[in-house]
Amino acid sequence: MLSLEEDLNPHALWHKVEIDILTGETTILQSDIIYDCGQSLNPAVDMGQIEGAFVHGIGFFMHEEYHTNEEGLMVSNSIWTYKIPTIDTIPRKFTVHVVNSGHHEKRVLSSKASGEPPLLLAATVHCATRAAVKAGREQLTRWDKLDGSAQNSIWMSRLYYPL
Prior knowledge:
By secondary structure, this protein is an alpha+beta fold. The chain has five helices and three strands, in the order H-E-E-H-E-H-H-H. This is Aldehyde oxidase/xanthine dehydrogenase second molybdopterin binding domain-containing protein.
């Protein structure tokens, strides 16, 4: 079993997000990721895993809302109610730099995971969007707790309506 120090997978991210305060439409203008893959077994596969998982995570943190009816059955189970990531979800400028950090003796061939961590790293896009909403509300006197989905209607309610 790996210790906490051995299991850490360091990364660096930077995002530039724009939110239209009239429509609530959110655009990810730029995302830069520096990702440590250990000793990559196949850099092309790692790059695809990082990019794909990150975009999947953007969909999860920015669009998904889980709704159920009175009987507990899921009602957000079609593309009419469940908004999957589209080409507009992908950052307009999207760069990923893979760092091969060398030998890690307790890992399989010194490699590190490249699928699951980028999915969770996409939470930083939600944080950047929250910061954009906060900037859009600068003239208002109160701040609202922003949790849950980042769908346009929700951002609009946070931007304009009294708290």
